[in-house]
Prior knowledge:
This protein is an all-alpha fold. It is 79% helix and 0% strand. The protein has a single domain (3-206), classed as Heme oxygenase-like (Heme Oxygenase, Chain A), CATH 1.20.910. The protein is built from 10 helices and no strands. Helix 4 (34-61) runs antiparallel to helix 5 (65-91). The model has no long low-confidence stretch (mean pLDDT 93).
Amino acid sequence: MTLAQQLWAQHRDLADTCLLHPFVQGLGDGSLSQARYRYYIAQDAFYLEAFARAYTLAGAKAPDWEGFCELHALASGVLHERTLHTGVAAELGIDLRAVQIGNATRRYTDFLLATAWGQSTGTTAVAMAPCMRLYAYIGQQLAQQNPPPHAYSAWIATYSSPEFEQLAQQLEQLIERYAPTAVALDQTYRYAMQCEYDFFQAAWEQGA
């Protein structure tokens, strides 16, 4: 079992708690209110900006050119996703320039950027991996329920896709290559997973 697999298995309880969250279940069956989804999309735009920056910082610290190139390619993918968010936000009538960053979003982005600035490439990959692996897991689980088409079907299709699974695996492979063996990484991984849960909870509460 790889280190990434061990970390996922160790903190799978939080992943399943996220999957069962009413926000996520509402995405799955289409019952989520548009107000909650609007809050989520607006906050996710902030998050993606920090995620792209974290990739870039991790790439700058990569000990080899291959890792530098991979991390910057992953950052480019996030930039593309952020552009798509701009389009979705416009369709929902959200002016991203006027949105205030929420407390849960701020805690998560501060954690990611502090890790990326202060820690190694491998530790930063550990901090970022829960997002990618969790979204792939949620997308795949929701897709298996085979819901009829609804407002959030595209969301499910995006995160259940083989392409997104490949991105999650690519990041996890960077953990195997660069994670420092002498550092306890389980707390970093779990904190990021808890931030994911808090992100869904904030959208559920603040978007109501």
